[in-house]
Specification:
The structure is a single chain. This protein is mainly alpha-helical and about 325 residues long. The chain has two domains: about 120 residues, no CATH class; about 170 residues, no CATH class. It is built from eleven helices and four strands; from the N terminus they run ββαααααααββαααα. The strands form two sheets. Strands 1-2 form a two-stranded antiparallel sheet. Strands 3-4 form a two-stranded antiparallel sheet. α5 packs antiparallel against α6, α6 packs across α8 and α8 packs across α11. The longest helix has 25 residues.
Length: about 325
Amino acid sequence: MDTKKAFVTKGLSITLISAGCEHEVDVSNIGFDFLTEGVAYEVDREVRRNSGISELQLDLDMPLHPYLSYRKVVDHLIGRESSAVERIKIGVCALLTPVPSNGFCEACEAVKSDAFEVFERLTFKKFRESVEGKIERVERLMQFFPGDDVIAKGFSVVLRLIWSGLNVRRVRPYLELEFLKEPLSVDGFKSIVARMQDHCVLQQKPEGKIDLYWGGRDVVKVDESILQCLGAFQASLYFTQLHLDTEARHHSTSCLPESKCPFKGACAAEKIQVNPELCNVAPWKQYMIGFNAQPGEQGCWYGVGVRALAGNHMRGQA
């Protein structure tokens, strides 16, 4: 893709029938959210089907968009009912292209014209050729995080995970299909995931509790201090993003809307915060009141991330 040329993401508006009712669905931007959620739901749906759940129950209480609408949009574009495997392959191929919305439409057109195998081979070839360049571009970002502080350590972990993930996808482009080979138990699911990539799971449970654990193939050796650096780096990105609106305009910290800490419920430091209510509305203020531990010590990940980010900003002005 020529990054100097402007491109427009593709979308469409269609009328869908679900549970006997018509729904107008406007997918104005077929982007990462629509495609990743669509593919993930198709995998989840097939896993549940393989476990014995009836067809009538698979989609109960599931929001039409983006989960159910993904299948409907694929069927609309290829001109017939699609299989789960087709929908997964179309979405994966689209996500491997430089502009996923264009890749999605091209993949659907390839299926419609019985040319998907050719499209698939070309897509994989281009992706594999681009992997080296992708990681080199990411590594250049390290210049923004010099030294050995918490942000640099966290980013170095992310870099290793990106490199490992790209290699996994390069060798096994349709790794999602490995979940569909047979009825899947909880242990079977964890075993498949562990063979793919190191990962940090942060998952909210129905009773309000949150699971937080690290698993994988030990691509990255993780102890509590490294996990804190990774969490602090993620929090610094989250905090930075809050300052930008949908039109990329920057807002000062004093004008930020209320926002809950992404680690709330899984953070040990939350229980000993002087002002725990801030975790629900303005976690960055935990840093401002000076309660958190210094980077590398036990403390609030969000606060450590904001403190480290502020330190890098001050060094950049020096």
